[in-house]
Amino acid sequence: MTEAEETYYTRERWQNWISRVEEEELDPENEDSARLLLNLQDDAAIAVAKIVSAHEEGTLSEDAALEEIEGVREIVLSDPTFEGDDVEEKVMLIDGVQTSLVCVFYAAEEYIAAGPAEKVPLEEYVQVAAEAEQEEDLDAALGYLVQAGTRIIEGDELDMSVAEEIEYGLVSEWLNGLDSLQSAMSDPEVVEEEDE
C-alpha cells in the first residue's frame, strides 16, 4: 500500500507545483501561465486516471482505489500557502484548479464504486447540469457532470466545444476538470515538471 501511495501522487509533488506557481508572475491571459495551471491540473487528473486503471486491471481493490483517490483529493484540495505580493491572486487561481478537479475525484469514486452511468450522449448531461446551475441546484449540476465523468472513464468522448455555450460558473469549471480527465484517460503520461 505504501509503495502504491508513492506511485500515484504525493504531497511533495503537489508542493512542487505550488512552488512553481509561487515563483512565476502569473497572468491567466498569458499562455505560459495558463499552461502551468493546466499542467498542474492535468497532473492530478493523470494520477486519478492511473488509480482507476489500476483498479480495472485488478491491481487495486475497490477499497484501496477509493482510499488512493481520497489521498490525492486531500493533497490537492488542501489550502496552498504563498508568500509575496500577489498571494490573493495566486490562491484564487489555484482555487479554480481545485474546483475543476472536484468533479474528477467524484467521477472516479463513482466509477469505482458503482460503474459507469447510463449511456446518454454526454452533451445531454452537460445541458442538464447547466440548467440545474441556472436553477441554483448545484448538487444536481455536479451530479450530472459526475455521471458524464464516469462515461468519460468508460471511454465516451465529450466534445469540449459544448463548453463554449455555457456561461462561466461552476459547471464550466467542472467541465474544465472533465477535459483534463478525458486527456488523462486517453494518454496517462505524467506531466513532466520542467527542471529549472
Describe the fold and architecture.
The protein has one domain. Helices cover 69% and strands 0% of the residues. The protein contains eight helices and no strands. It has helices at residues 2-8, 11-23, 31-56, 62-76, 87-114, 122-134, 138-154, 170-186. This is DUF2150 domain-containing protein. Pfam families: DUF2150 (PF09920). InterPro entries: UCP022079 (IPR014518).
Strand content: under 5%
The number of E-state strands comes to 0
Helix content: 55-70%
Order of helices and strands: HHHHHHHH
Q: Which outline best applies?
A: globular
The biggest sheet, with number of strands, parallel, antiparallel or mixed sense and barrel status, is:
none
Average pLDDT confidence is 90
Parts with pLDDT < 50 across at least 5 consecutive residues: 1-6
**How many angstroms does the end-to-end distance come to?**
32 Å
Number of helices: 8
Protein name: DUF2150 domain-containing protein
InterPro entries: UCP022079 (IPR014518)
